[in-house]
Amino acid sequence: MKNHITLKQKIVEILAYVLMWASIVIGIIWSAKLPKEVATHFDAAGNADGYGSPYSFLFLPIIMLISCGISSLVLHFMPPDLWSMPVKVKPEHAVRVYRDVVWMMVGMEFCFGVFTLYSTITAYMQKMDGMLAATFIFLAVLFGIIIWCIVACVRHNR
After folding, report:
1. Single pTM value for the model
2. Residue 109 and residue 152: Cα distance in Å, rounded?
3. What share of the chain has pLDDT > 90, as a percent?
């Protein structure tokens, strides 16, 4: 049953991957232009407190790409009835409930893409003073998507 994935959801998922690949491309290009040692870790105030290779900034985009890739494999190749669902899905509501979960998955992938691109750019610019706020916003949006999905699943499964 593939009718639980809409065109809009596929577009959001593609955009998430474009953002993550852009992070990797930016990382490769900028790593070659930076000195051999740069600030790689910052405290909550944005002050550098760790140093290393500029190529270490590629770990986040690569890890996010792998994580979202696994999520996409589940989304596209695993039957929805095997997914871990927030409700016991009634057959008559299955397509709508599965679409709600797909929105959660692609919404999370998109958030990962935006956060990864932002993190990559700020890391290479060596300006991390807004990173703590960006992390809190990222987590708030992520939890908002999850909560919205659970509420939508319960509502659409009645």
Report:
1. 0.88
2. 19
3. 66
